[in-house]
Design goal:
about 10% strand; mainly alpha; 9 strands
Length: about 400
């Protein structure tokens, strides 16, 4: 009975795909937002906050306005720049923790972890500190920059909706210490968008704020005198909320419209293969947001292609632990906007979608094996579908 219901569900999704693709060529260019646009349906006040928040997001900080003394970038947009503000970047961060089996994770916070900043301001360099050093006993993981389009919709998906997918995909929610469900970050360590953005200001730019009022300390040691000229908090609460509204109101990335009927049919066939070989088990095509006082976020369907759950991805991809997530566990990466990426997986080690598929292990190994058994033209149809996201 469960298999029958699963195929009924798949058939319904495919039928919706047929209807959508039938309208796609004629309507998509008119109905979809351009990349970097705000969500449709915002009020004038919300649009004003979106534009003002974009200015904060693109602000270049200096030591006098709060940069550092330790940092990875001087603005949010420095990392989230391609192809527009909110996109991805070519930067790679250094994260490190220490995992003791079976389930003890040391974030190395007393030694500067889990993010080890790779740049220092001139005054800190003059004191002999050029970057943070990773402790020799730590496990290290690189982190590429994810695009953040549609994150406001992810933020409003109810915890219960995420939890409902646990029995379908075999993944597990990252439960935080306070009981909330994590959803942001490569290991779903952060539960809310505001916390995610406030943490990024501190960890990436060294900019203190209302949620993170304490300056980063180089490998846990006190800052040398005179190296932190800006008074804390270095970002006002209003500017933090404006930047959060910019990210919150960023529309999801648009789908690529098919150029021909043949391409439309190929995309549809690739979508069917995506379901048939098990990719959609973890890369859940869509979820609905919960009730929200902002109409643009209220009970909206977001085509995220993720269950937002942790999955064992195998030993070859394992790097660091984080909170309750083991080194081999990662949150299913959302595939929306996949066509705009140039590097893939959590650390950017794959340079093509095909390369990323071939590196899937653990709970994803069966889907990878099923892909490898496909005929060449079926593999190409699946990649064409993914290239439309």
């Amino acid at each position: 009975m469960r298999d029958k219901m699963r195929w009924v569900w798949i058939a319904g999704v495919l039928l919706a795909g047929v209807l959508a693709l039938g309208r796609l060529t004629a309507m998509q260019r008119l109905s979809q937002s351009e990349l970097g646009d705000p969500l449709p349906g915002l009020t004038d006040e919300q649009l004003q906050r979106f534009m003002a928040g974009k200015q904060v997001f693109e602000r270049v900080f200096t030591p006098e306005t709060g940069l550092g003394p330790l940092f990875n970038s001087s603005s949010c947009a420095e990392c989230h720049e391609n192809p527009v503000s909110g996109g991805t970047g070519d930067e790679s961060e250094t994260h490190a923790t220490h995992f003791t089996p079976p389930a003890t994770c040391d974030l190395l916070e007393a030694q500067g972890g889990p993010v080890f900043q790779q740049h220092a301001t001139p005054s800190l360099e003059a004191a002999g500190i050029f970057k943070e050093q990773v402790p020799p006993h730590a496990q290290v993981g690189g982190r590429s920059t994810p695009p953040i389009f549609g994150f406001g919709l992810l933020d409003t998906i109810p915890d219960e909706t995420i939890l409902e997918h646990q029995h379908r995909s075999g993944g597990r929610a990252h439960r935080l210490e306070d009981g909330r469900v994590g959803r942001f970050g490569r290991k779903a360590r952060v539960a809310s968008l505001l916390e995610f953005n406030a943490g990024a200001f501190l960890q990436e730019q060294g900019v203190t704020n209302a949620l993170n009022p304490n300056e980063l300390l180089p490998n846990g040691h006190p800052l040398p005198a005179g190296t932190d000229p800006a008074a804390d908090p270095e970002l006002s609460l209003e500017d933090l909320l404006l930047a959060n509204d910019f990210v919150r109101f960023l529309a999801p990335p648009p789908r690529k419209p098919p150029e021909t009927r043949h391409e439309a049919r190929t995309i549809l066939r690739g979508q069917g293969i995506f379901f048939r070989i098990g990719c959609a088990t973890c890369h859940t095509p869509a979820m609905r947001t919960g009730p929200n006082p902002i109409a643009a976020l209220d009970r909206q369907v977001i085509h995220l292609y993720s269950d937002l759950l942790l999955h064992d991805m195998g030993p070859d991809l394992a790097d660091i632990c984080l909170g309750d997530a083991r080194p081999d566990e990662f949150r299913t990466a959302p595939l929306m906007g996949l066509r705009f990426l140039t590097q893939f997986l959590h650390d950017g080690r794959a340079t093509t979608v095909l390369g990323a598929i071939q590196l899937h292990g653990g709970q994803a190994a069966a889907a990878r094996a099923a892909f490898e058994k496909l005929r060449r033209n079926d593999q190409e149809a699946l990649l064409t579908f993914l290239g439309s996201l």
